[in-house]
Amino acid sequence: MPRQEDTTEELQRRKARFVRALGRSTEKVLHELEADDRRPATMNRFLDVLRRAFLSGEEVDGPALHPGQKVIGTYCIMAPEEFIYAAGAVPIRLCGGSYEAALAGDDLVPRDICPVVRASAGLTSFGLLPIYRRFDAVIVPTTCDGKRKLGEALSDFLPVWMLEVPHIKETERSRIEWLEQIYAVKRNIEKLTCRKINRKTLREAIGRIARAQYQARRLHELRSADPIVVLGQHAMLALNAYAYDTVDEWAGAMTRFNDELEQRRRQGRSVADKRAPRVLLAGSPVVFPNWKLPMLIEEMGGVVVIDETCMADRLLYDPVGVSEGSMTEMIRGIAARLIMPCTCPSFSPNEDRMYRLRQLVEKFRVDGVIYHVLKGCMIYDFEVARVERMMKEAGVPLLRVETDYNPEDVEQLRTRIEAFLEMTGAKKSEARCESNEILCGN
Amino acid sequence: MRMSTLRWTVLVIAFIVLTYGGLVGISLGDFLPTFACWYVGESRGGDCFLWHVQHHFSGHGGPGYLVRPNAPMLLYFFLLLLVLGKAWCGWICPLGFIMDVLDLARRRLNMGYLFFSQRLRARLAPIKWVLLFLSLVVPLSCFPFFMRSQIASDLSQPYCQWCPAKYVVPLCVGNVEEIAVNFRSGVGIFMTAVGLVVAGLFLIGALTKRRFWCSFCPMGLVIGLCRKISIVKLKKNCQACTRCGICYNVCPLDIEEIFTERTRTNVTYQDCILCMKCIENCPEEGVLSATFCGRTIYRATQKGFFSNPVASGRRARQEPAVGAADTISADEGEPVLSGSRPS
Ligand code: SF4
Ligand code: SF4
Ligand code: SF4
Ligand code: SF4
């Protein structure tokens, strides 16, 4: 596959610059995470996965790949990974989170589009990371405008399968059309891997992913524990690492991670102050290494008890439901799990998201919502007003934070987040005083 | 025990009791709200409600006869409806059992299933009303018009002639007499010929569509109409539902409302057979539940969901968790097209 970087020397040099800068900033984030002694020891495995993907020049999970095993990139959680595993291939989630990659992508996509798309374009077109040079095809679900056009832009570099996601999921017609799309992806994957996906392999793949989902849900439950046993930045990182790991390895690592958190809970160990405001991080995806927002929130004394991003809590939340295990049922189940419970704002109407957020606020006893808007991410920004109205009704304050991958606005964000957390913190202790006179006797 | 296993157990026991119970003297009554088919003969352990209704309506005492001497029997019938409601369909009906067995055969044959779109479901809905009309009004009207003529006798059990149970259930006791066209009269020929066609369609339908006949069944309709007074109910906590659609996909009756519902707590719909598959497969804690007399008897749990042998990827073990890496070996699976690349 001829790539852009091979054509001229200038390009090669630019690429090398990007790679160096990307390496430096990624290393910085990893270092900061490693220096934090509140992190569970079992988190190291996830840090390793990310380091390997971003820094060490090794291919994805090198040893786990058989020679000739196909790698299929996915640009959204709406891509059916079950088929990829069932066909003996490996999926990698490719959404980019790096500032340097976003800069590299500027040649290919408009500068006003969101940084996820810019970074993805940069990573893929330049093949900045080893894993981006490894895959045989990518699946691009047409969720938002950015992703849709990204698919077209990437098709100059590698085989792209567009997966047309319906924007209205309520109607039966769109569900049936979606099911057809899912069958088409299945055929594409079978063709690429030269393997027929049959009942046995699909069933196995669903089971393997279900094991990871079970652990992801365990983490979801553990994050709701009081006292708080894990910081949001750590939990989210562990989930993010799934993108670059194989499902079984990740599930194993997650089991140990959860076991450690479980132990913390039994010992009553807490990683945060009781009075720390419990934050729901909503909105645009937080993609490694763009870790500034969760880190800032927790540095300023808040705790991200839960998030609703598609690279963390939502990544593995919804399983495939199967009762009889026939092909029809499994494929319908996969099709349903990909879009029906999905609260991505690319769906309209998106009442389901409001329900979901309400559930999260209640279950995680959230004190404040920080709503992340990536510059250029129209659809998440569009819904901020609705979410704010709803939160107002629930009596939960909301802060809209618009930013991109550029590290330069950190100071400004810090001030705003600090003020917000102080306000929610004050509100929280007030509420505690009202409900419990003795507690605020001091 | 998993709910589906329990349901199968009850279904098998009910089938045995209702089709062979008579051999050991079991008789559960003349008015059972289920297809305990009369044509099974002496070995049956109870009687189908519809048979007696048609029998009395068509002149064997008239409709009044159904009520007066049978008042205690009718009371019994309503009591049975009250206590079990639609669970008669999901857990007891012998024809339902046969459909589930055929369904199992379909799975063994590696076949998928057809599902009815909502539009098709709506279009098919009148059929059961027509069949109910057939079983109530035709016997009532043929009595005064034809008195004791041949036509009246051939029309006396009109629905039974078209009921797949009449042809299929007796087979289970080795009775093949019913599988024949009645040549006594034109009416007889017509009714039984249509009935045989229906029975054929039933077999094909049950092999390709989950609980095929239940979408057309007048008995299910009658039970469904009484679902409001029944004390078994399917409940949903709409606030906590994620609308994942799993309940809809596993529902043998393709009831869409079960997952789209966002306001009502009571989700026992007309077609629902209370098989509880939706509860068993709902991954959200307590979102779907079955209540008996207002008390929750079964509820959806996350743990229950992940202990599903298919969903968890293992057959026997309960805990789906610990991720022993089972990597796929490269030589598994069969080639489709070698060396081709999608463009
Ligand atoms: S043929 Fe059908 S309606 Fe008639 S007695 Fe048998 S089961 Fe009942
Ligand atoms: S609806 Fe189905 S289960 Fe119920 S009586 Fe009719 S055939 Fe039997
Ligand atoms: S399975 Fe449960 S959570 Fe999913 S749509 Fe049905 S009721 Fe809602
Ligand atoms: S709604 Fe639930 S209980 Fe009723 S038929 Fe469907 S799966 Fe069975």
SSE blueprint:
The complex is a heterodimer of chains A (442) and B (343).
Chain A: H1 9-35, H2 44-54, E1 71-74, H3 81-86, E2 90-93, H4 99-104, H5 115-126, E3 137-141, H6 145-154, E4 160-163, H7 172-193, H8 199-223, H9 232-240, H10 247-267, E5 278-283, H11 292-299, E6 303-307, H12 327-339, H13 351-363, E7 368-374, H14 378-394, E8 398-403, H15 410-435
Parallel strand pairs in A: 1-2, 1-3, 3-4, 5-6, 5-7, 7-8
Chain B: H1 3-20, H2 49-57, H3 62-67, H4 71-84, H5 87-92, H6 94-108, H7 118-146, H8 150-154, H9 158-162, H10 164-168, H11 186-208, H12 218-225, E1 232-236, H13 246-250, H14 257-260, H15 277-281, E2 288-292, E3 295-299, H16 302-306
Antiparallel strand pairs in B: 1-2, 2-3
Helix pairs in contact in B: 2-7, 6-11, 7-12
Description:
The complex is a heterodimer of chains A (442) and B (343). With 442 residues, chain A is α/β, with parallel strands linked by helices. Chain A contains 15 helices and eight strands. The longest helix of chain A is centred in the N-terminal third of the chain and has 27 residues, at 9-35. The model of chain A is unreliable at 1-5 and 438-442 (pLDDT under 50). Chain B is mainly α and 343 residues long. Chain B has two domains: 3-222, no CATH class; 231-343, no CATH class. Chain B has helices at residues 3-20, 49-57, 62-67, 71-84, 87-92, 94-108, 118-146, 150-154, 158-162, 164-168, 186-208, 218-225, 246-250, 257-260, 277-281, 302-306, and strands spanning 232-236, 288-292, 295-299. Chain B has a three-stranded antiparallel sheet with strand order 1-2-3. In chain B, 44% of the residues are buried. Chains A and B meet through helix 7, helix 8, helix 10, helix 12 and helix 13 of A and helix 6, helix 13, helix 15 and helix 16 of B. Residues 234, 250-253, 255, 258, 272-278 of chain B line the site of one iron/sulfur cluster.
